[in-house]
Write a structure and sequence with these properties.
The chain is built from 9 helices and no strands. By secondary structure, it is mainly α. The longest helix has 26 residues. The radius of gyration is 19 Å and the shape is elongated.
Length: about 190
C-alpha cells in the first residue's frame, strides 16, 4: 500500500493534475483521454491507475487541489464583515478570470458542476462565520446563515458566468460593485 504522504506520490499526483489542467485550457473534458494525460505526464497507465480510478477521479482531485490554493482573507482582524466579504469576492472573481479557459471547458462538459460544488464548499467554510456575525449585527438573525451563504455563492458565480457569456460587457470592478450591492443586506 502506498503512503499518500510520500513526496514521490504527492509529486506524481500533482504532475498528473497539472497535465489535466493544461489539457483543460485547450479542450473540453470529454475530449481528454487517460492515454493523453499519461503521455504528457510521462507516466505509465498503470501509474495513473495506482493513484486515480479514472479521469473523473482525477478531475475531482484536481479541482480540490486547485481550490485549496484559493487564498482567503476572511479572517483578517482589522476588516469588518462587509470588507472581508468584498475582498473574498474580488479574489473569487480573480481566480475564475485567471482560470477562464478551464472554467469554460468544464462548463461545457457533463462535469460542469464539480468545480462549482468544490469551490462553493471551500468558500462557504470561510464565509459562514463572517456572515453569521454580519446577519446578527444587522438584525437579520431570522435569515438562515447557510441559506444566505448559498444564495451569495450562486449569485456571484451566476454573475460571473453571465459576464463571461456576454463577453465582459462591464469592467470587472463594476461587476464586483454591482454584485456586492445585490447580495449584501443592509
Amino acid at each position: 500500500m502506498r503512503n499518500e504522504n510520500d513526496p514521490r506520490v504527492i509529486r506524481t499526483k500533482r504532475n498528473i493534475a497539472e497535465v489535466l489542467l493544461t489539457h483543460l485550457r485547450q479542450k473540453p473534458f470529454e475530449q481528454i483521454s487517460v492515454k493523453s494525460i499519461c503521455a504528457n505526464a510521462m507516466v505509465r497507465r498503470s501509474t495513473f491507475y495506482e493513484h486515480f480510478n479514472d479521469k473523473y477521479d482525477l478531475l475531482s482531485y484536481t479541482a480540490k487541489h486547485v481550490c485549496e490554493k484559493f487564498p482567503s482573507h476572511m479572517f483578517v482582524e482589522n476588516l469588518g464583515e462587509k470588507e472581508r466579504y468584498k475582498r473574498l469576492m474580488v479574489e473569487f472573481l480573480d481566480f475564475f478570470e485567471e482560470n477562464e479557459a478551464i472554467i469554460k471547458n468544464l462548463r461545457n462538459s457533463k462535469e460542469e458542476t464539480l468545480i462549482e460544488d468544490i469551490f462553493f464548499e471551500r468558500i462557504s467554510r470561510d464565509l459562514l462565520f463572517t456572515m453569521k456575525r454580519y446577519l446578527e449585527k444587522n438584525g437579520k438573525s431570522d435569515i438562515h446563515p447557510e441559506l444566505y451563504v448559498n444564495y451569495i455563492n450562486n449569485a456571484v458565480f451566476g454573475g460571473y458566468i453571465w459576464w463571461l457569456k456576454e463577453r465582459k460587457p462591464i469592467s470587472k470592478e463594476d461587476l464586483i460593485e454591482q454584485l456586492f450591492k445585490l447580495v449584501m443586506i443592509d
